[in-house]
Every structure is written in C-alpha cells, then in structure tokens.
Design a protein that fits this description.
Number of helices: 3
Number of domains: 1
Radius of gyration: 17 Å
Order of helices and strands: HEEHHE
Number of strands: 3
Keywords: Membrane, Transmembrane, Transmembrane helix
Shape: elongated
Strand content: 15-25%
Length: about 100
C-alpha cells in the first residue's frame, strides 16, 4: 500500500512538472526544444519536448533522493513506474506539447 501511494504521489509530482516544463518552454523561447511534425500551406504543427525534460529532471531527483537514503531499489521501482505512467498519460491523453501555428492569409 505504501508503494502504491508513493507511485501515485510521484506521478502527480511528475505531471505537475510536465505542466510546468510546458509553460516554461512556451514562455522562454530559448529553452524550447521542438520538432515539426506536420507542415502545410495553412498551418505548421510542432511538438515541444520541454515537458519531457522537466519530467526527467524530477525523475533524476527522485532517484538521487533514493540513493541518498540508501533505498535505491525501492525508490527506483516506484519512480520508474511513475515515469512510465506520466509519459503514457501525457502522450496518449493530453495535448501537452502539440502546437499549431496557422499561416496568415
């Protein structure tokens, strides 16, 4: 039960980090890491990866915390499960990172 609650808490923390990373990437163009996924005469669709960098930083912090407390295996398992859940939710069920820019006619 404690592990399930830890995974839930870490998933929520990583989801908040994903939202924060997306907002920071939108506010600071120098930090934006993006890839063009579709381009037509009417619009350009890009995918920004700033949210993923923020989530990976939180993941690294959770692993470092587990190493400092000498609970590497338990912490690594729960943090990895939370990482997979967060990435799956963001990629499959949200539009975080997808931007469409329409051309002015």
């Amino acid at each position: 039960m404690r592990t399930a609650l830890a995974v839930l808490g870490q998933t929520l923390l990583m989801f908040v980090a994903a939202l924060g990373g997306f907002m920071v990437g939108a506010a600071v163009p120098a930090l934006r890491i993006s890839r063009v996924t579709a381009h037509t005469d009417l619009y350009t669709r890009t995918y920004d990866f700033d949210w993923l960098i923020a989530v990976l930083l939180v993941y690294a912090a959770l692993i470092a915390y587990g190493i400092m407390r000498k609970r590497t295996k338990t912490c690594a398992i729960s943090a990895t499960i939370a990482l997979v859940i967060t990435v799956a939710i963001v990629v499959f069920f949200t539009q975080i990172g997808v931007k469409e820019v329409y051309a002015m006619a």
